[in-house]
Amino acid sequence: MAKWGQGDPRWIVEERADGTNVNNWHWTERDATNWSKGKLRELLVGVMVENEVGSCEISDLKQVEGEASCSSRKGKLIFFYEWNIKLSWKGTVKESGAKHRGSVEIPHLSEENEVDDTEVNVSKKKGDGDSLKDLMKTAGVVKVREALEDYLKALKTEFTTGMILPTKAAPAQELTAKRKLNEHSFPDSVSSMALGAVGVKIPTVTICMRELFDIAVEELYSIFTTKELVQKFSKSIAVIEAEKGGKFQMFDGNVTGEYLELLSNTKIVMKWRCKSWPEEHYATVILNFVPVVGQTELQLNCKGVPVCKEESTRKCWEKQHFEEIKRCTVAFGNPEQLN
After folding, report:
1. What's the DSSP call for residue 282?
2. How many other C-beta atoms lie within 10 A of the C-beta of residue 111?
3. Domain that includes residue 60, residue range
4. Residue 183 is assigned to a structural domain of this protein
């Protein structure tokens, strides 16, 4: 193998701390569908236009069908998106105070066309109010296209953060500057955790889930804090130090973290991460145990999940935690019998 500084640079393995996707040569892909739906709603709903006749506002995102993704290959980003979007608008005539409603349809937003060439259709419910429809067909369409442009900019900057890892030809400081996120980038925070020594900021989301279990609060709490019970539902060796500052390790080391707070039978707060996440990046997980008649509701708040890991993290909690705990408690009848 050629050493650094020798031979064809496409085939050289750099001395990287993370050892991941050297020279950005390998194909990687992120599903941007869920992120895009949230971003389109954020940018389109609330768009307003006004003139001497009246005012109009996009009031709702009625439908957003399609998909979006971003791929990295040989250090280049490749975007795919195709959307059919339907919006509702409402308006008020200044002179009479009459209110009218209508729709905006964007039948085909895709990478095949520029936003300025994208079809945007405006319609109005039957009755008067053509002056408001005209306002939406002119100034309104301009504002909608501006929002679509903002979506594409966000897709190509915010969402792709960390996909192109820095190499010796592109220092981490330069990459971080190019990928700098503004303070309104995401509904959740942007983690400043480093990818090893790389220093790339990670866009994150918060996952909230609720699940009912047919066992008492103290029994469900013990399942999350007792080594033998964790090993039973996870079907693997576990390390559980259920005290403040104690460590935990589950699923053969694929889930690790640290307990930050434990309030018996009520609440658990922990640093939590999956092995596949960027190095040293942790989410903050809060588990609230709420008693209901004959059951316990588990309320999960997982803040700081990398955007690209949202779906897999949801499945981890749903399939590997919730479903397995229920299966075990049904099979054995009582958590105490799992020992």
Report:
1. -
2. 13
3. 28-157
4. no
